[in-house]
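> call design_seq(struct)
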């Protein structure tokens, strides 16, 4: 991982690096970028003031139309304006937009991931019909790689989600090892719960109205069914013990007194069936307790054990290998002599586990193209995650290495800040690679955009319904791209955090959510989409809901 490699290189070349320009709006274009955009015909007019007053869902529909052209169509002309109109005959042939999907909890919230693609849009990133040889040579100067347009943020997430057909083959795992995994089949009760009538309190099991003649002995938990009671009889009983046949109630120990003749008198009346847990009160044998796709939390483990399970059929975690790139990275000590600390090597394994992955290894490769090629070719992990090297600088080896291996780029750049140089590729053998930018917060953006949807499907998880929270204050936006901004939740509102530059982790370390800010920004009081962070969604960085 290069802490300030990919985004910083681009920003340094353009003179717009945020960290060095405190007066520059976060992730906004520099003056030089604006002049370059204008010269190439891509500059856009300022956002009209009236547009800022649109309801959030209408702005979302406008900024994220769900009837866009498929990603893997012929690339756009890079010199053409970004917002040019489609030809009239092409527009007439386009399928009608489908009804906007909204969440059940709040019909005003626009759910990007629930929107269906129009007819004819690919629903999965299928491999090439004839995979290229794993050692396809680099394209020469006369045959350069075809440039790809950056993918809209919501569409990139959908491509990542559909890059794999489904989760891995299920396995039966002992209860002790099933925590954090996902049920591969519904959890059905193997017995009635409780399996027999039990006492909810310490006291006496009584039959009929009192007073009662106290019988010698007692009913204890873990013992066989005690002798039945006749009307007017009582017997001492412990919590959880099997209630004798004929019992009409349990009289709590603090609600009764025993006289010298061993007669039990009620100090407080008890009703019929009081403090008796009847058989099958919680469930009957065969009842479905939890659906397929449920994350196995500590409570699920307890329920499964109570229902008679010794093991569970679960989807195993997808195996992930992390490759940290960059010669400038230190693994210990203070930064010195142009070297900086590696922040992603320590952070990514825990974050990936929270997304449902099993991290098998973390390798530090430096800026070595051959080492990268060997690591990708020889890895047995289902998903590889690289840090840094996704831009086009002299030491950015990810793209050339993927071409050498014959990989297929599914996403090559995303219209999001920070993190726009992220990528998703499919290797010829079906494995996937998520290329994260080197800047830490840009890498987090890549995790939430590409790694989370991919790993969610592979691990069998069910997509969480996206939330929306009102902004407490205005958030500036990028003119063209989506922004992901760390925020805390206070009294039902999202408060954007400072220190949200591409190379900064100070903001995300204290955040509850990431706010999805559409191009142009968000105004105070406007409801915007939010993405949960693993520690706020699951707690302690584990995969628990």
């Amino acid at each position: 991982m290069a802490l300030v490699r990919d985004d910083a290189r681009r920003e340094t070349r353009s003179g717009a690096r945020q960290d060095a320009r405190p007066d520059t709006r976060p992730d906004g274009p520099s003056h030089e970028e604006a002049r370059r955009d204008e010269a190439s015909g891509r500059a856009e007019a300022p956002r009209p003031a009236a547009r800022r007053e649109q309801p959030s869902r209408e702005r979302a529909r406008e900024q994220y139309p769900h009837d866009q052209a498929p990603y893997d169509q012929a690339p756009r002309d890079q010199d053409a304006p970004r917002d040019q109109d489609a030809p009239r005959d092409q527009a007439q042939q386009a399928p009608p937009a489908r009804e906007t999907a909204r969440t059940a909890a709040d019909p005003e919230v626009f759910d990007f991931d629930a929107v269906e693609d129009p007819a004819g849009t690919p629903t999965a990133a299928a491999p090439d019909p004839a995979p290229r040889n794993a050692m396809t040579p680099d394209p020469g100067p006369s045959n350069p790689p075809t440039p790809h347009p950056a993918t809209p943020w919501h569409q990139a997430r959908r491509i990542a989600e559909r890059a794999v057909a489904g989760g891995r083959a299920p396995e039966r795992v002992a209860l002790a090892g099933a925590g954090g995994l996902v049920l591969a089949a519904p959890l059905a009760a193997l017995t009635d719960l409780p399996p027999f009538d039990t006492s909810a309190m310490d006291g006496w099991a009584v039959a009929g109205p009192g007073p009662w003649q106290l019988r010698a002995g007692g009913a204890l938990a873990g013992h066989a069914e005690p002798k039945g009671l006749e009307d007017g009889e009582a017997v001492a009983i412990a919590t959880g013990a099997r209630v004798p046949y004929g019992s009409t109630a349990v009289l709590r120990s603090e609600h009764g007194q025993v006289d010298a003749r061993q007669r039990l008198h009620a100090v407080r009346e008890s009703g019929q069936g009081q403090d008796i847990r009847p058989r099958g009160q919680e469930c009957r044998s065969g009842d479905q307790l939890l659906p397929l796709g449920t994350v196995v939390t500590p409570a699920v483990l307890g329920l499964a054990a109570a229902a008679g399970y010794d093991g569970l059929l679960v989807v195993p975690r997808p195996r992930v290998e992390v490759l940290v790139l960059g010669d400038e990275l230190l693994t210990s000590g203070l930064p010195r002599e142009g070297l900086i600390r590696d922040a992603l090597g320590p952070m990514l394994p825990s974050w990936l586990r929270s997304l449902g992955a099993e991290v098998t290894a973390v390798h530090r490769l430096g800026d070595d193209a051959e080492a990268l090629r060997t690591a990708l070719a020889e890895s047995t992990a289902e998903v590889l995650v690289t840090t840094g090297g996704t831009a086009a600088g002299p030491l950015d080896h990810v793209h050339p290495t993927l071409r050498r291996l014959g990989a297929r780029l599914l996403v090559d750049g995303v219209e999001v800040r920070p993190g726009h140089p992220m990528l998703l590729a499919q290797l010829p053998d079906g494995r996937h690679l998520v290329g994260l930018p080197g800047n830490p917060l840009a890498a987090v953006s890549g995790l939430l955009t590409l790694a989370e949807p991919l790993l969610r499907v592979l691990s069998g998880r069910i997509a969480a319904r996206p939330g929306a929270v009102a902004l407490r204050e205005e958030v500036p936006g990028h003119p063209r791209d989506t922004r992901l901004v760390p925020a805390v939740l206070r009294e039902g509102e999202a408060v954007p955090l400072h220190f949200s530059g591409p190379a900064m982790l100070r903001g995300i370390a204290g955040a509850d959510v990431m706010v999805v800010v559409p191009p142009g920004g968000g105004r105070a009081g406007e409801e915007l989409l939010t993405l949960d962070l693993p520690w706020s969604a699951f707690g302690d960085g584990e995969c628990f809901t």
